[in-house]
Amino acid sequence: MQNRLFIDGRFVDALSGRTIDVLNPHDGSLITRVAAAEAADVDRAVEAATRAFPAWSKRDAAERGRLLLKLADRIDECTQELAELESLDTGHPIRDSRGIDVPRTAACFRYFGGMADKIEGSVIPVESGFLNYVRRAPIGVVGQIVPWNFPLMFTSWKMGPALAAGNTVVLKPSEITPLSSLRIAELMAEVGFPEGVVNMVPGYGVSAGQRLAEHPGVGKICFTGSTATGRRIVAASQGNLKRVQLELGGKGANIVFEDAPLEAAINGAAWAIFHNQGQACIAGSRLLLHERIADEFLERFIALARSIRIGNPLDPQTEMGPLTSAEHHQRVLQYVQIAHNEGGRLLAGGQRPAAFPDGYYLEPTVVAAQPTDRVAQEEVFGPFVTVLRFSDDEQALAIANGTEYGLGSGLWTRDLSRAHRMASAINAGMCWINCYKRVNPASPFGGIGRSGYGREMGFEAIHDYTEARSVWVNVDATVPPYYRR
Ligand code: NAD
Known about the structure:
By secondary structure, the protein is α/β, with parallel strands linked by helices. The protein is 39% helix and 19% strand. The chain is built from 15 helices and 20 strands. Helix 1 crosses helix 7 (205-214), helix 2 packs antiparallel against helix 4 (94-115) and helix 2 (61-77) packs across helix 6. The structure holds nicotinamide-adenine-dinucleotide.
């Protein structure tokens, strides 16, 4: 298990010698101690990435792509090992780590590996006598800050497009879940990524994260995490006016209309909120039910929620594991109290299951509330769904658009016109119709409003990791000189 910083192709201790305890969310036991990067370590990493940039950016794009493709193959070969590491560190059920996190990580690196030599510029139709073409050039050293909810997958979402486009990277994994990212760094060294192209500096946000966001040698910072930290990132980035990309929180509205395919909607709504214990920015954490089907839907939805198998993430039977940290567990539990104080009705869950007194577990929790209540406005980020009722499309839309967030959203209906009408009216970066939480490396992912800006995945991501460089050529010898003498 790698537990040191990865700088300039080598695993090294932090200059301060300090470490962070990495805990197992299943029982709070110590997994390992990981070197804690601070500002001086981040500086070393940025220097290494700066040295590596000229050669990496000039390398044949196809060669950069081949390395990403080799990495994807190695990830496939290490599926079981990576899945176990991710489950141990984050609490993801192993069936999800093995069936979703690892394959999606490999798929993302593979997609961008294939794209590396397809990043085309354009020729712009300008006045005659001139040729104007636009190249997409890499930015330089990019800083990337990853949260604890999907550390392995997000490592690929961030690094795949950045490296394919010819940037070099300094990535800060979360201090809570650094292990799978460090293993990816090791695999990258093994498949032949040159020294300094990728650097990883696990450490606390206030020290390592802050330094990366403000570092004058970093050309872009890409961040996933809370809206509050996103604001700090923007402030820290101002010194050198670096580019900023933010993937922040969400309060996904998942709308079930009266004509919905009910069985699929019940299953999909449970997946939307309970997958990864609800720790997903795109989680369908607001369940909007048409009043005509609400009672039947809830009865069946709650029965399904109660049947979800909670357990040790490493048990292949487990469908829901613990929350990822003790602190976060406490935070989510507080929302049960907040709901109660505001007059919300607890319909299911709300307790730590008795079978797991030491782990950070929480039963699937269903609360009925009003659209303006805190539990309907704030991101809980747990297996906690807020149920809201509506009577017509207009009201559903008003509720859906009634938060400051705009990331994921879903709707369930058999009416094609209503589906497209609502999909275009909901303020969200992504809308899923009769499904939820579909993600593919080819499809742009990101939010609007307080959910952030910029897009991960697809050509949009490449766009965000490159700069347009415009070149003008005077191809017509007859063009008159500016000053006639
Ligand atoms: P956070 O925003 O504090 O942390 C995310 C990452 O940012 C971590 O790597 C952290 O070390 C780093 N960071 C923290 N402070 C920083 C700073 N000042 N400068 C630079 N980097 C900094 O999020 P959290 O504490 O891990 O979680 C709190 C809440 O954030 C969650 O409950 C949830 O609402 C939200 N969240 C959203 C996502 C998402 O996918 N959009 C992921 C994780 C958390």
